[in-house]
What does this fold into?
Amino acid sequence: MVTSLSRPRIQPVKAGELLFTGNDWDFDTIRRIHDACEAVAGPELGLSWYPNQIEIITAEQMLDAYASIGMPLFYKHWSFGKHFAQHEASYRRGLMGLAYEIVINSDPCISYVMEENTATMQTLVIAHAAFGHNHFFKNNYLFKQWTDAEGILDYLDFAKGFIARCEERHGQQAVEQVLDAAHALMSQGVHRYPRKKRPDLASEQRRERERIEHGEQIYNDLWRTLPNKPGAARTDAAADRRRALLELPQENILYFLEKVAPRLRPWQREILRIVRLVAQYFYPQRQTKVMNEGCATYVHYRIMNALSEKGQIGEAAYLEFLQSHTNVIRQPTYDDRSYGGHNPYAIGFAMMQDIQRIVEQPTQEDRVWFPEIAGTGDAMAVLRDVWENYRDESFIAQFLSPKLMRDLRLFHVVDDPDEPELRVEAIHDERGYRKMRRSFARQYDVAWLDPDIEVVDVDLEGDRRLILHHKALNRITLQKEDAARVLQHLADLWGYDAVLKEIDPATGTVLAEHVASARPIFF
Amino acid sequence: MHIVDRRLNPGGKSLPNRQRFLRRVKDVAQRAVRESARERDIKDLGKDGRVTVPADGVREPRFSRQPGTGLQDHILPGNKTYVEGDTIERPPGGGGGRGSGEGGEGGENSEDAFRFVLTREEFLELFLEDLELPDLAKRRLAIVETEGLRRAGYTVTGSPANLALGRTLRNSMSRRIALKRPKPDELAALEARIDALPEDAPERPDLLASLELLRERSKRIPYVDPIDLRFRRFEPYPRPIAQAVMFCLMDVSGSMTEHMKDLAKRFYILLHIFLTRRYRHVEIVFIRHTDRATEVDEETFFGSRETGGTLVSSALVEMKRIISERYSPDDWNIYAAQASDGDNVSSDGPTSTELLRAHILPACQHFAYLEVGDENGPRAGFVEHRTTLWRTYEAVAKSGGAIAMRKVNHRREIYPVFRELFGRKDAKADA
It folds into this structure.
């Protein structure tokens, strides 16, 4: 049952009047908090956002949401049950706290907030998610380009229904096998560069039907049975033409299989498509972790301070906020026991604050490094522009300042297996700034982090074997067992053998080779 | 802005996912459950259980880079003493300060086993799967479940709670149309027209008269008439149920050591869990005996102590009495399980045999005999000693009596023996 509250009559809160006292809150409080945050986010920070929808949920529902990667509705698959069991177990043993909120890139923007949160935490969470993340989702170019906030929930609804219907018609087992295989290839299921058209999730359902009809009519080059003219030389041109027909090389493996795999049935193709579109929807989030969290953290910090200055939250609440804020942006050093990599909240927030400093009070160094923004005076204008036009990699490459590198005491270690020891390549000094910033930015380049695997060719004249290449960057090869498993799934979907060669792009030598033959599970 | 309170939404949204997950790990989970049953105290069986399954069956493979190969870059915070060009000894376990970038993703793969908690229901489901009382055949219609209510169309009388609103309004509408009840719009239009007319218009009296007529009509034809009312009708229906009664017989005489009693109790607790869970209409009768037998309640049966000699036939006599008094074999499926150390007064053998042959076994669907022995069990090299009771029962079994016999020495044997005794026969053939 869903209870939606209609807007009750509330007097607008005057400055100097506390939004709440104590820890308790009710729906009126939430509304007052939201309106007060809005008063800061709009006029003072100049943010723009999708309309907000704030949903109060319990811990169990939060675990539910965790299990289905944060989405309010999702198709059924055992892996989500596994994640739920995993999260639940560690939650019950007290190893893991639950997030205070989950926010969904949709229009209206849905923020789930936990019922256990105190009034202060609700304020923080609303400022963070409903304004910070929401602004980022609405304005960042990656989200604008790749995601369809309006259509996502309808599309997920369609996906859920479609997969449920498939389960009814073809059996859970059969559907599960396709999903297993598709999930294994999920991170190889995104287009990294924009194609002709923006995806329009709302019309997917109609297009599914059209695609099936179209697919029944067109001709698939794989099935060519006409013999070549006798004596005709097999030219490179013919091979090129074949590759062009198959849109090769293709790094979106799921897309390739969906379109070309010869033996899949229409519903199996559609499932691949669903998994692929979901992966595509989440792709921008992976590329903007630091910026997204940095933006939201910076926004909540500004809003909470503004509320405190206006006297809308009390001292106790402000201290409580500071405590959880500092927890969130804690960055342990590399030798700390609790070190687990860079904290995107910490870096993001530090960089946003640093940009504000550069814009408002630049040093001589800043003027040299950031001539375009240093001293221009309007920090929010610069930040809004940054949030709109960058992703993690370009953001760090552009805006990580020497001062911040010194503050964080960053250093760069190179681990070369041919050398007996690790080497410190660069530290936070004049010689190291640029080098380090470049390598650091690269660590946030998803295209650099994900192994670069492409379908390069199909042996149409022989045994229809699918050939893939992994360009092994820095000679880092794939994890063997997992690669074999994924390749097995790939071969199953393809219907014939698949071979994956790991190639050192510098020299062209083959570092490793994996082969898999299709099991007769789909056909 | 909207605020939506989702807390009241029904929980268990991820239940289908969990079921799919459990189905996937069923084999390993079942093995784990049975293994844990061996170690756990049987009284805890009713609680939820933690099981560990190997990560292999539930692995989600992805293409990922092998850590520790190739050239790797790490950017780390918190430099204290290093300057450019320093070398650092490779930390044991390989990789300096892994964790930046993809390190976090790799954590999941390195997991060897996956641990999660089963609810009590799921645990018992796996634990008791494909066990059942053999030959639950007789059905009796005398006892009817009252909860067997089902919808059965509509009726014109009923309680307001069962009012079928849609049906009622449909009737109301068709009646109103049939009787030409004026619609409110028509009335309003006519009134407006009259109001708009000048005071002395010639058609005014006519219109007023027809307005009066319409008003009269709508008063006479009610919006909802009692004749329209329809109620949802429920009717009880009889559901045949199989009734069963389980006799638990236990020797509590002095010759039974604590260990043996413990074994017997474990067996019965297992049986108790199984029966109460699987069959809602199973009655259980506890009879314990020394040289006298008494029917006792569950608590006394499992809890209290007694000493005395052993006379097995006393329990059989008691059982026979109870059967004839309360559980006519025509109406009831009768099962019996007996636990004893095998001691019996030798003169009692023929009596017991006779009782079994003539009265007990013909009435019973299934008679299981569990002989509990010393913890150390029959020592190797010795010819297995057959107890008095075992020999008595063996003779009965050989001459065609439906009696299943097992011997148990150690706690860990209880569950396998239990499964043997109550395993679903057709399921075994499949496996």
